[in-house]
Amino acid sequence: MTEMSSGEYFYPNKMGRIVLLAMEEILGHNGINAVLNLSKQSHLINHYPPNTLDREFEFGSVSKMMGAMEDIYGPLGGRGLALRSGRACFKYGLREFGPSLGITDLAFRLLPLQTKIRDGSDLFAKTINQASAQRVRVEEAEDHLFFHIEHCPVCWQRSADASVCHLIVGILQDALYWVSGGKFFHVEETLCIARGDPTCSIYIDRNPFE
Ligand SMILES: [Zn+2]
Question: How far apart are CA 34 and CA 65, in angstroms?
Answer without folding.
Answer: 10
